[in-house]
Every structure is written in structure tokens, then in C-alpha cells.
Amino acid sequence: MPPLTPPSRREALRLLGAGITLAAGGCSKPVEEIVPYVRAPEQLLPGVPVRYATTLSLSGWARGVHAIAVDGRPIKIEGNPLHPSSLGATDVFAEAAILDLYDPDRSRTVTERVNGIASWDMFERALSGPLSTVRGERGRGLHLVTGRVTSPTLARQIDALLQALPEAVWHVHEAIDEANAERGAELAFGRPLRALPRLDRAETILCVGADPLGAGPDQIRLARAFAERRRDPARFGRLYVAESALTLTGVKADARRAVTPLEQAAILTSVANALGAGLAVPDLPEAARRFAQAAAADLAAHQGRALVLAGPALPPEWHGLTHWINARLRAPVDVIAPPDRIEGRIPATLADLAQALDRGSVTCLAILGGDPVATAPADLDLARRIARARFSVHAGLHGDETAGATHWHLPLTHELESWSDLRATDGTVSLVQPLLRPLYDGRSLHEILPLFTGRSATSGYALVRETWRERGGADFEGWWRRCLHDGVVADSAAPIVDPGEPRLPALPEIRQAGGLTVELRPDPCLWDGRFANNAWLQECPKPISKQVWGNALALSRAEARRRGLEAGDVVRASAGGRSIEVPVIVESGVAEGVGVLTLGYGRERAGAIGNGNGIGANAYGLVTQASPWLVTSVDLAKSDRTETILRTQNYVEIEGETKKLFRQIDLAALASAEPKGIGADQPSLLDPWKGDADGHAWAMVIDTDACIGCNACVVACQSENNVPVVGPEEIARGRMMHWLRVDIYDEGSPEAPRAGFQPVPCMHCEHAPCEPVCPVAASVHDGEGLNLQVYNRCVGTRFCEANCPYKVRRFNFFGYADGQPYANLGAESVKAQRNPNVTVRARGVMEKCTYCIQRIATERQAAERDGREMGPVVTACQSACPTRAIRFGDLAKPGNAIAELRKDSRHYALMEELNTRPRTTYLANLRSPNPDLKEDRA
Length: 938
Fold this sequence. Notes:
This protein is about 25% helix and about 20% strand. The protein contains 27 helices and 36 strands.
């Protein structure tokens, strides 16, 4: 580099002039024209959030939510307390739906496979030919494919279409279905029925391959019921779990066994025999046999309060057997008619569609929603078969794999842009109302379906109102506004039916297959793959493995050692002539002879975030029609490649430290337990805390016994606080940005884990180690006990991060949200999601949890305006939590629940020996181990 020389006088004047010109330009008016409202909408105050009750779906089932909008922009999702499936809480999928709305990869216009961009008029003209043909044959040749239909309006439309065209065929495909449970109910009761377990009344529970606390449409309802019951020590009960690999339910179990799928069936049979079934029982390993005996005895001793649940991978006969067991136990189970059925209609399957395509009898194929090409069983080879349809069209949010296989693709509106109605798992109807006009040229399914009857497009609003006009009665408008306000249609739940006495099914013989058995599961972050292009969910750690940006084949330590494999080794998994390449991950609690792999990765047309390029393996490549959940006789061949498993928490063994960091108490010892303080009794060189000058003392208590590790709080915090996504490359460098993480601790062994979850936000220490080391006073304490981070002071020394023992501070190594975003997250549409009450941080700035200070400020301003005391403040993580594990409040307010929780015998502070005196504290995890299963105790 040449030596620097001072500029000449001429150059200095030129630079000065250029600087003045740039400064003047930077302060000039923007070139955009700003137009005020001619007639401002009523009750719309600039910058003031407005809540609307609406509904989001997961696999067709409704979860009621409140969508929060600012100046017409939806920015946040929270639960609707009046809805039976959300109860005021959310899950990761509901929280992340707001990012899906602003996804820049969403379909924007009608497209035709050969000519590209088209229009709705062009599509209608193209459809008129094949539609005329099928009409002339009473609908023969028209095949309609949908996902699960719970919308009464859509069901009415489909029924009307099939009445007008009786030879048309309606197919239903849902990648994460309940086919085995549905067939099991028919075996037991002779008719289709749906069982709704009541975990609030079940004190002794046996889950065999079932994960009621895991991700799914009913997670919030089941987790809330489970946690609320266990808050009462007298009704704490006991949870038994037999499963192939650790699940959220398995983590909360009081007694757990890692068993193969074959052994799961044998355990159910053993329990049935203990209740008088008289069935032949396959041989069980000694540990599994004693587990089954202990569970059966406990269940029998608590009749009326005992419940057995079977997992989706078990064959229908064992689901039928489960109904028989529950009848013997007088289990708390409500039985209803399936809410996702159209009376008198039995939908066909994708296998029926494949046969019709092979026969060449499909004149017009309409795939409305979903992505069956990506999620159908591999042996159907649906992409190749769809090419045999004379005319094919797909309607979806993205130009996905199915869009690439059809002639036409139609853009769908997002649920936050459209009108509809949906049923929850208990049959309760809730309305879907839009928060904004469609961002692109999309239509809803309600508006698309009339095109196939030859009618012009009808607005979704009119169609939904037409469905409910009779129910609304004479004062329909008043009834309609009430339903929109509440978000639910009152008294619309399906009536509970008496199913009668279940039959004892004949059980087929199941033989142990050779080789490895791979159990396929929905992914806790991507579900069936529909969320693959959602960056929040790609970067959300899986609850057990903490893996992000990909999936991996989970094996036990013993199984990996026997096969000569280590974490990160890439193997070729082959079965039935099909194979995929997938990295290996070693996990605790996996049964020997079993591997577990989640669905939804390895996408080819998901979008800029979720497309291939090493983001996971496509587990659908191993799925077959005969066995969608289990792949048997899998051969693993080690390749010469390795991949880094991206995890936000590595597996570390610390001798004796787990009991200090994560307090666990047996229920029998609860009476003698004493609360632990925050270290205030420790000597300190700092001045004693003199109280909170502003009259408030904000604090948080997290109940680790109620926490199920679902990560709803993590994504809620990300949505509320504009937390950026950094991408897989930065994660590999350890640069995650989540303000809140959920750690998993394990006191057990790799073969028998005894684990628990511990959410870790900022501790807001009264003696904060981060504050004295900051050279510019960017990390400071306010008068209400909050540890603040002043962004415009921060110069990025990272001394505070190094001095924080809880490791909850995050540094912007790049402008992740400010000029250097990952992939397409800098698009203008994505910026519309950001919360205007939270600063977007720049490169070189430290950030962390603030206890949602913007919500505290909003409540303070409202209290000052109304001349009253401040009311309760609910943080984003608290509002999202399905089990109400997170409590937040004011220690200085008399009678506040936070102060009482700090006196609870389970209370403790994380690393209280450091004398940081944290405002965030915890309640210990509780367990009720069976004394007859001593090996379950640490």
C-alpha cells in the first residue's frame, strides 16, 4: 500500500464541495408523494396497535388468534382466549404465520407452464374447454384434490359441485394424517368417530408412541390441560411413556422406556391383558415387561382418571385396542363425529388418483392447496403421473413442486388476507377475516372453486356469510359482528356422542423386520414441509436436538457405535429400491435398532430460504403407501462425506453441575423442600440494592415443570422484537441472535435420559456483571430494575457479552436486519412485518431481552392518560406460552403473584452463587417416579 499523502488545496476544496452537496441531498425531501387520508377510517389512530380476532389453520384444523396490526400492517400474532384450541396462547406455527404473509417468494400472479406469466381471464378461457367436456359427461374426468376440509363453507361448495357433477371425484391428501387412528375407531365402534382425550381429568396416563404435548393442531389444548392439572400436587398423577426416541411428552414423563415400534405394540397388548383381554403377547425385554406391568397396575388403580394414548405409527388394530383399554378404565375421553367429514361423502385417496391417471381418464385435475407432489408417498411417483392429465391446475401460496408439475398455477391468498371459516378439533367453528387486502393477485379457495362450476368468481365474504345466514337468525348482522368480535361461533362444538361398547379387535401378527427401522415424524419446526420457506422456523432450534437449518437421522450412541458412525457422517439410507442421503446425529433416548427422521426438508421449489443446497434430507423419499410412518429393513451405507450438524446447544457433560443449574424435585420430597433465594445473602463488593426509584420492580418467574420446550416463546420474542435471522453460515460460527433460548438439561444417562427444559432470557440482574465493564455506559440499570441496552451508545466492545455468565447477549456482527440481511429477508415486503415500537439494530450493536419494555411503556402511557394505576403487563413470551409457564409482574405491587411465586418451595435462581441477584427466577421441575421402576430415578 503506498504511503498516505495529504491532499492538495484544490483536492481539499473539491472534497469539501462534494460533502456539502451530499449533505444537502441527504436532508432534502423524499421524492415519493405522501397522500393523507381524505376520509380517515374510524377508530384508526396512527401508531396504535389494533387487534382483530381471526383464525389460522394447521393441517386444516383451526386455531383462533388475535392478529395485531399497526397502521394497517399485521405485525404480530397472539392467541384468542375464547378459542378452545388456542386458549389465549400460540405455537411456533401460529407465531411464524406473520412472516409467511410477507414472504417475498409468494406466488404473485397466474402462471402457465410454457408461456409464464398469465392472467385470471386467460386461465378461465383455458379452463372452459376441459370444463365443457366434463360437464357433458356429468363430471366424469374431473378430479379435485384438497387437503383436510374443516371449513363449513368450503364443504358446502364441494358438496354443491359434486351434486352438479356427480361423476366428478374428490380426493383428500394430508401429509400428516390420522389414518391409523381413524381406521382404529371404525374397528372399535363400527363407524367413524374422533376421540378427544381430556388430560385435565386424567391423572395416570400411558403414551405408547404418542406425543400429545408435541407439535400439532391440538398441542396448546392438550399441553394446557396437562400443565394445569399438575399444578395441584394432589392431582399430579404419573405419566408413563414408551417411545422410539425422545419427544416433548417423553421429557415430561415420570417413567419412560425407549422401545422399538414392535415392542410398543407388545406393551399395549400386555396392558390389555392385565385388564382381561386374553390376547397372545409377543416376547418383551425384561425392562419393557416390568414397565408394562407397572403402568398397567397404576392405570387399573386409578379407573375413571386413567388414560392410554396410541401413536400414529401404530397399526389401526392397536388403536382399536386402545379404545377397548380406555373403555375398561372408564377413561376421560370425549367422543364426537369427525368434524372434517362432508355428510354422505367419502373422499378418495391419492392412490385412487394415481390409478385414474394411469388409465388416462383424468380430463381436468384441480389441486387446490397443499403440495402433494412433495408430500405424497414416493412409490406413487405423482409428478410423473400428473403429466398424463389432459389439463391440470394447482392453487397454492408458492410455486412449489406441485406447481412445477401442473399446466397452470394460481396464486392463493394468505389466511390473513381472506375470508373463510374453519373448525377446531372439537368441531368449534371460528371465522377467518382479512386484516389487509391481498398483497398480490391472489384469490381464496372459496373464490376459485366456483370457476369449476362455470360460475364467475364470487367474493369469499359473500360465500361465508351465505353459509351462516340461517344460523344468524333475524338479527343476522348483530350475530355476525358478535362472531367476528369473539372469533368463534358460539355453541358450534360437535356434540359428544355415546360410542357404545368398543369391540376387542383381532390383532395381526407383527414380525421383527431385519435391518434398521426408521420412524418418520412431523418436524417440530417445519411440520410437513409447508413452512420450509419460513426463516424464523428454519432457525428455530428443534426442542430436543437443538438442530437448525436441516434434519438428521437420529441414532442412539450404541447403534452409532455398532455401525461405526459419528455425528455428521453422511449415510445412504436405502429401502425398497429407494434411497436418500442424510447426515447422522447421535441423541439420547433413542431405542436400539431404530432411527428417527423428521419430514419437510430437502425441498426443491420451496423458495430462497427453504430450497435444497444442503438444507436437510427429503424423508418423503422413503415413504410408501403401505407404511407412511415406519420404514423397515433400512440399509445404511456410510459415504465419504460429512456435514456439520448446526446446533444452538451442544451436548456437554458436566459432572454434578446439572443438579445445580436445573433443580428437580421428586413429588414425595416436595413437602420438605424450601425456596431458594437469589443470592442476596452472599457477600458483595457492590453497593446494596436500594430499591426501584420509579416505584416498580419488574420480575419474571418461569415454571420449568410446566415448560414443554415447544419454542413458542422463542418465535414470539423474535416476532415482537424484530430479532433478525442470521442464516446457517453464521449459526455455524455460533452467532445465533435469539433473545430467548430454551436449554435442555439431562440428569440421566444416554440410554435413560431424565431431562427438562429451562427457558433463559436476560436475567435482569440487580448486580449485573455486564454494566460495570461497558466503557460507554450502554448497559445500564433503570429505576424499575430493568437492565437496559442503549443502542446508540454501544460501540461493540462486547465486554458485556464476555462478562455475562448467562450468555444471553447477542452481537450484530453484520447488519442482519440493517443492510446485510440473509437471503431475501431484506425485501420491502419483509420490512412491513417489523414492530414500529422496537428499534431495528445496526451492525456492531449488542442486543438482548428487554422484558418487552415497549409493552411496559405502552401500559404506562395508557395509565397516565386514563389517570389510573398501571395494570398488568404481558410480555410476548408470556402471552405465547401454551402452559402459562412464564409469569411476569411487578414485585413492588402489593398482592402481585410474582412475589408469591418467589416464596414457593420450588423457587430457585440460576447460578445464585454468583450473587448477580437476577430478577428472572425459576420454579423447579417436579417428577413422580414409580417406586417399582427404580432405574428411572437418577
